[in-house]
Target: tRNA (guanine-N(1)-)-methyltransferase
Amino acid sequence: MRLDVVSIFPGYLAPLDLSLVGKARASGLLDVRVHDLRRWTHDRHHTVDDTPYGGGAGMVMKPEPWGEALDEITASGEPDTAPVLVVPTPSGEPLTQRVAAELSAEPWLLFACGRYEGIDQRVMDHARTRMRVREVSIGDYVLNGGEVAALVVTEAVVRLLPGFMGNPASLTEESHGDEGLLEYPVYTKPPSWRGLDVPEVLFSGNHARIAAWRRARALERTVERRPDLLHRSRRLTLDTLGEVA
Ligand code: ADE
Model:
């Protein structure tokens, strides 16, 4: 997978060299290219922002440097290929495991990290005429810019690439997976620690009992912490209907 990231703070993307994402890069699974937006400015001050039309607080990122950056980067690919443009913004569609899975199936992602009050809307509108564009939010809070969000999206996506995880089974049972429930609590050795014991059932060797216990704990957690997720859990809905019937 090829990943291009455009930002006025390329240093923010340094974590892409670290950890598993860095390893995926080193192994050739990932081709990451970080670009400084100011490279596509032409004035002495390398201006990337201006005041908003219609008034209001803050500054808006000018379309020209973005247009040139996207033109040059998209032209650097194979003929007849275009990246998916990912624009982190608090007004985007929510990043979910499904969105991460969809993006992980793409050969090329181009992240446009905005700062200030955002990027002139015409940049996205124009890009839509030549490539797919996804404006994505990582949560209902406002960050200072898209860089940290781009790191979040990247990590969620890259760990789904075939050959990335040492143990692909650990992808199948986690929170926000197909089942739509939060993950059950997990334990390892020692069996007793600071007076707290690992639940007895986990020593039983009875796989059906363990699976039932885990599902009950996952449900309990989801009801308590994320009741909004429950309608999405198909099995739960069917089980509940079964109980009601
Ligand atoms: N940029 C600023 N806040 C953001 C958010 N919550 N998600 C994605 N990008 C952002």
Remarks:
- Residues 207-225 form the longest helix (19 residues).
- The pocket of adenine is lined by residues 88-90, 137-139, 141-143, 146, 149 (CB under 6 Å).
- The CA atoms of residues 77 and 83 lie 8 Å apart.
